[in-house]
Amino acid sequence: MIRPAVHLDAKGVGPARGRHPWIFSGAITRVVGDPEPGAEVDVHDPHGVHLGRGLFNPKSQIRVRLYTSMDEPLDGAFFAARVRRAIALRSHVLGLDDLAGACRLVFSEGDELSGLTVDRYARHLVVILTSLGIAGRLEPILDALEEALRPESITLRTEKGVGEEEGLVVKDGPLRGTPPTEHVIIQEDGLRFAIDLRTGQKTGFYLDQRMNRARVAAYSAGRSVADVCSYTGGFAMAVAKAGATSVTAVDASASALELAARNAELNGIADRLEIKRADAFGWLEEVAAAGRTFDMIVLDPPRFARSRAGLKSALQGYQRLNRLALDCLAPGGVLATFSCSGRVSAEAFQEAVARAAASCGRPLRILERLAQAPDHPVSTACPQGSYLKGFILAAE
Ligand code: SAH
């Protein structure tokens, strides 16, 4: 049987040759053959020169996900080898194989596995699928994970919207083994965290902030700290352990804060933690109006920009949130501020923070520039994988 193929226009060739994994429908001039959803296709330039192979999805804006520039089959063995390579990076280069800990084992484009993310929480794995093609090759991927790691369980979670975007209908739940009935407890930097693998945000924990929690904690001894958008208290625990005099964790989610309380117990810091369920903007306004200040504020809001159209309002949101935080920051205070919007560049985010500082005439100095942890690697072929940025700033 002749393999179906797609032909690209001149504009689409550059990214594909540079091994960018997303081939959008607009870059395709011709589809030869009649590929099924999820089928393997050859990718050709306008002159018919072979550029690689990918998986086809007629429903998705990303019409083809390109996985190789070689002429090789995209079968179970191919994806199993990619999974083993991703695991080897965490183990051999990053040294993240403490089985009591947690890490991201596979990060989609960052591991040349566009559409597949796998996190490990102690001995339990959580898989997230964002591509139809990968979903069709899940069994060999699970076999490879089991063979390499012998996990107690593998659970499937799906991202909101993927049904519409990819035409992918999957049911969340256990895939292999027996998932924990309660929480999994993981260790990070000498702290313990309870994780809800089934209903927690992301896959249960913000693994991308692991190293940043340690960096922020380095400034916290002897300071009163507000952890704004705390989720289950990742930063709150880290600063409390590092010697913060008091910590206030603020989040809009009641279930996240329940776990924050549990985490405080697990780490013996409950006596120094105040928990507040509130909207971040409204809470900061109230704090400022009451004349209360903190020596250090962590701002880790959810993604503000989900599309290019939302970029302007996202930047206004960052400016406003950072300005409100500055109004609550004591003289000589430290601000740790993050953006996880992939659409917002580090430069644009820095400008939003600068506008916030200028609006209250309060000089800020950047002490550290932060990014996502290295188990969330960024492929140079797909710079869009770089999404988390942050600054630790010293205020006047
Ligand atoms: N800092 C956390 C991760 C934060 S994720 C960690 O290290 O684990 C962003 C958090 O913001 C989520 O917990 C979400 O519930 C919360 N959130 C979203 N909108 C909010 C709002 N308007 N006010 C307060 N919290 C909000």
Structure at a glance:
It contains 11 helices and 20 strands. It has 396 residues and is of the alpha/beta class.
Overview of this protein structure:
The chain is of the alpha/beta class and 396 residues long. It has 3 domains: 5-68, Roll (Archaeosine Trna-guanine Transglycosylase, Chain: A, domain 4), CATH 2.30.130.10; 76-177, 2-Layer Sandwich (Transcription Regulator spoIIAA); 206-395, Vaccinia Virus protein VP39 (Rossmann fold), CATH 3.40.50.150. The protein has 11 helices and 20 strands. Strands 16-15-14-17-18-20-19 form a 7-stranded mixed sheet, with helices on both faces. It has a 6-stranded mixed sheet with strand order 2-6-5-4-1-3. Strands 7-8-9-10-11 form a 5-stranded mixed sheet. β5 (50-56) and β6 (62-68) form a beta hairpin. It is globular. S-adenosyl-L-homocysteine binds at residues 201, 206, 209, 229-232, 234-235, 251-253, 256, 279-280, 300-302.
Strand content: 25-35%
What share of residues is helical? Answer: 25-40%
Shape: globular
Low-pLDDT residue spans: none
CATH top level of the largest domain? Alpha Beta
Give the count of helical stretches.
Answer: 11
Describe the strand arrangement of the main beta sheet, using strand numbers.
16-15-14-17-18-20-19
Mean pLDDT: 96
Distance between the termini: 70 Å
Structural class: alpha/beta
Number of domains: 3
The CATH homologous superfamily of the largest domain corresponds to Vaccinia Virus protein VP39
Q: What compounds are bound to the protein?
A: S-adenosyl-L-homocysteine
Biggest sheet details: 7 strands, mixed
CATH architecture of the largest domain: 3-Layer(aba) Sandwich
